[in-house]
Write a structure and sequence with these properties.
Helices cover 14% and strands 37% of the residues. By secondary structure, the chain is mainly beta. The protein has two domains: 98 residues, Rhodanese-like domain (Oxidized Rhodanese, domain 1), CATH 3.40.250.10; 176 residues, Beta Barrel (Lipocalin). The two termini are 48 Å apart. The mean pLDDT is 97.
């Protein structure tokens, strides 16, 4: 295991005749903004992290990241130790600890500010936005995709606060049967009055009625509770689910959610044991899983 090294000891080692290899394992733009003098950059989040280390296995190495609360230095130290490097130290106080004790830093260029999105209504990108669905019975599963006909997100004070979408049920496809004769059979079945009755109801609508932001949610974790009205076939009913919303690196609004909804609440009852007895092989689970991805233009 790697040893921990504190600031005074690191200062002494760096000032010695044979200083250790000092590796900044943060993102490249964080390194360029500020790093400990003579450190080299090798981001631990990249799969090529170990490949870029050219030191001898016995050479002293010190790794550091942002601060003691962030795990990148301990992750890097563990990777190096597992790869056979025998003299690895973890400067867990990181660049913040170094600066807090008066250590000098090298600055190359300021980091670019995080992308922002303007308040207001933003149309969705119909090519980048979609819903993937999964339907099951006890042993089998089919999954596919449904497209949007139109849609928008509403942003206020940089946060997603509303939106409305028209789902084009004519666009439904099944990935698991693509390239087989059964694909079109299933799609006709789903579009028929057994399921979504697409001839009479070619589209579904979803209107966001309320959003509740989850305070303290970290990036990559659901940060929004959405309640909206789903209009499917001849029924409109509320549904609540968790979502993750944010801004992409190029300033587009984006949201994604994974949820299950009970199709029988919208009069889609084919194969449901709540309404039919002795279905045999025609049993279909009531819950349909949806994986939604929304990106604005």
């Amino acid at each position: 295991m790697a040893a921990l090294i504190q600031t005074p000891d690191l200062q002494k080692e760096l000032a010695s005749i044979n200083p250790p290899l000092l590796i900044d394992v943060r993102l490249k733009d964080d390194f360029e903004e500020a790093h400990i003098p003579n450190a080299v950059s090798s981001c631990v989040f990249e799969v090529a992290f170990l490949e870029r280390i050219t030191a001898e296995k016995s050479q002293p190495i010190v790794v550091y990241g942002a601060d003691s609360k962030s795990y990148e230095s301990r992750t890097a130290a563990e990777k190096l130790s597992r790869a056979g490097y025998k003299n690895v130290s973890d400067y867990r106080e990181g660049i913040r600890g170094w600066e807090d004790t008066g250590g000098s830093v090298t600055r190359n260029k300021p980091r670019q500010p995080d992308p922002q999105i303007t308040d207001g209504r933003h149309d969705i990108d119909l090519k980048e936005s979609f819903i993937e669905w999964s339907g099951r019975n006890l042993l089998n599963r089919h999954h596919g995709r449904i497209g949007f006909r139109s849609g928008s997100l509403t942003i206020a004070q940089g946060r997603l606060t509303g939106g409305e979408f028209v789902i084009d049920l004519k666009q439904i496809i099944c990935f698991s049967l693509q390239g087989t004769d059964l694909h079109d059979v299933l799609i006709r079945h789903l579009k028929s009055d057994d399921f979504f009755d697409v001839e009479r109801f070619p589209e579904a609508r979803f209107l966001i009625r309320q959003t509740k932001h989850i305070e303290g949610a970290t990036a990559g974790h659901p940060n929004l509770e959405i309640t909206g009205e789903l209009s499917l076939k001849d029924v409109s009913a509320l549904i609540t689910f968790l979502a993750t919303a944010g801004v992409t690196s190029d300033g587009k609004g984006a949201a994604q959610a994974v949820l299950s909804f009970d199709r029988t609440q919208w009069n889609v009852i084919y194969g449901s044991a709540r309404f039919f007895h002795r279905l045999g092989m025609h049993l279909v689970n009531d819950l349909i899983d949806l994986d939604m991805r929304i990106v604005t233009v």
